[in-house]
Specification:
about 75% helix, mainly alpha, 10 helices, disordered N terminus, about 220 residues, single chain
Length: about 220
Amino acid sequence: MTHAVAVTPREGVVWFGWVLAGVFALSPLLGWLSPLGFAPLAALGGLLTIRGIRVEDEQRPVALAILVLVTWALASVLWSPFKPDSIESATAAKLIAQAILYWALFRAGAAASAEARTMALRVLTWGMGGLGLILALEAATGAGIYQALRAAIGDPIRPDLAVRNVAQGGFVLAVLTPAAALASKRTGCGVWPIVLMAGGIAGASLSLAADAPILALVVSV
């Protein structure tokens, strides 16, 4: 007879809650300074919560939809003339890993205790509000804060490249704004975080010349 290694209820709810809070706390910082680091952060969160992964009955339609999309994407990769020469460029491997790890992170929200989940959602709400405020200020100053920070660490950057880099944070904000806005409503954080998020998306889209965050926001909703 084999015995599965189980996570005790108390151990699971505490660990999953802290992982979620950590991911949500780092997301605004990466969204501003290194948007490309957002995907590895989410993957790390999924890896840290992988032991709690499962598919409940009510989640099967969503899981099936994800499986179909990943399968379709993998099939399209097969007939592509591009042949990856490293794991970093292997789209198929990354899609499979993302489907598993992102689902694990999603499940962590359900596995966490109500108190831990509320704490994590408040971190998400105010974190995205903070990112919105930073992007709005960057839009008003032409990425002046980002340029000053780069100059302070001895790595100056051209203004046009600074604007491009900061504008990418609009994608992170746009994708997470609907969830953060709902979290704000459910945890009683009020309307101000939502106003800040909207200001950040508007700033990134209008003043930083990044139109795609608006589309990302629509799809995310």
